[in-house]
Amino acid sequence: MIHYILQIIAFQLLFLVTYDLFLKKETFFNWNRAYLLITPILSFLLPLIRLDFIRQNIPTAYTIQLPEVLITDSPMQVHLLPEVVIGSESHLSSYISLIPVFGYLWYLGVVASLFLFLYKVFKILNLRRSGTKVNTKNITLVSLPNTTTAFSFFNTIYIGTNLSEIKKTNVLLHEKIHVREYHSIDLIFFEILRILFWFNPLIYIYQNRIAMLQEYIADAKAIAETSKKEYYQNLLSQVFETEKISFINTFFNHSLIKNRLVMLQKSKSRKIFQLKYLLLLPVVCMMLVYTSCTEDANAQSIENSENIDTSRSLLIQKIEAVKQQIAVQGNVSPEEEKALKVLSALVNGDVSNEQYQGITGALEIPFGVIEKVPVYPGCENLTKVEAKRCFSKSVSQFIGSEFNTEIGKELKLSGRQKILVKFKIDNLGNTTDVHARGPLLALENEAIRVINQLPKMTPGVQDGVNVGVMYSLPIVFEIKE
Asked: What is the model's pTM?
């Protein structure tokens, strides 16, 4: 859910940046209105779209990638880089604990926003009751005594009695266009989004942009029906009261008057500039590429589950076929029997079965499915996530303190030297099968020496049986000149 919300915010930001940079100053008001109404809806839908021909399946990793360890030639200076969670473990696992808290905050915000909305509606109803109503064709005119307020809400226009007749004429002309164009529906749409997504500042920016655009639309159509000079003068003289309600079309919005005057004097945009709206296509395409390559956690786990079941059945069939081939050839050697049992145990997943006794030392369980991860001394009695973090930190500190930093001077090295080390914590908690790959054999040997000195650990456990787990660790040796 959190990932979905972050995608929505990111997409809305991209849509708004595109609008402000390329479309905001154009006089294609109806096109801009459609853009501002459609793109928020797209931002909700696009994260849900997965295109199979774009999606790239990332294979599940069966080796734990430990954080990179940075070692310098200055003694005891160890820099721990942030932990990176990859492989079969979801990248959202660290957020799971935040979901209940976020849920309570969201409900609280929705309730507060809803009460604020109802309060604004109550203010409008009070104004309607306090004024004198005159019903005309499709429009209700409410005269508000002793005020210069002027605004419209759906098919009702509210206008103060203290306005001069000339100003009333221009205001009515302007507000009738708001009513005729159903502008209140646009604002209510964003008001609903503000209630549901009160924490998203981009919704407020969207509502501000649509309110400004509605004024441009009403001005453009009103000026065609009256004197341009008189309309300008009327706008310039606006020092009247304003009802600060986010979902009404108020005529006397001082912050918008300058922008309205600028837009009124602007020449109509050339039709060729309508091609700017084609920018929406590459923007949407980029979003589709991202969403199609980003697996939803639930969908991925269901799909993976189905794939695992299918693969398990095929593997079992192949193992049986290998057994039959070996039986045809003659006797089965102990090594062959052990290898078959290891394969069978990994496929079936039931390593505690009596038939697999004697081969648990050869088992290597994927980290993403293991019940209990190996535990570094001093990291006991922690949760799986905390134990993993403690393990990474302890290993990094151990390597930083034990690595021979003088080797850089001896070999006359400079810059950053990266060594990739792989090792296994076996079913007894010992470090075994250490391999290293680096730019120099001496660095590889030093890395292997240090890893082999790791203390004995509490082994990983699966189905109540101690099993081995493979690790991968990049070590960066930085030589300061």
From this structure: 0.53
Domains of the chain: 2-54+91-293 (no CATH), 297-362 (no CATH), 370-479 (3.30.2420)
Q: Write out the E strands in 77-205.
A: 78-80, 132-136, 139-144, 150-153, 156-160
Distances (CA, A) of 37 to 73, 99, 208, 386: 59, 30, 12, 45
Q: Between β-strands 150-153 and 156-160, what pairing exists: parallel, antiparallel or unpaired?
A: antiparallel
Rg (CA), the chain: 34
Buried b (16+ CB within 10 A) or exposed e, 321-347: eeeeeeeeeeeeeeeeeeebbbebbbb
Residue-wise pLDDT tens digits, 88-102: 333 334 444 455 667
How confident is the model over 423-475, as pLDDT tens digits?
888 888 899 989 999 888 998 999 999 999 999 999 888 777 787 888 888 88
Phi first, then psi: give them for residue 222, nearest 5 degrees: -70, -40
Beta strand pairing status for 64-65 and 469-479?
parallel
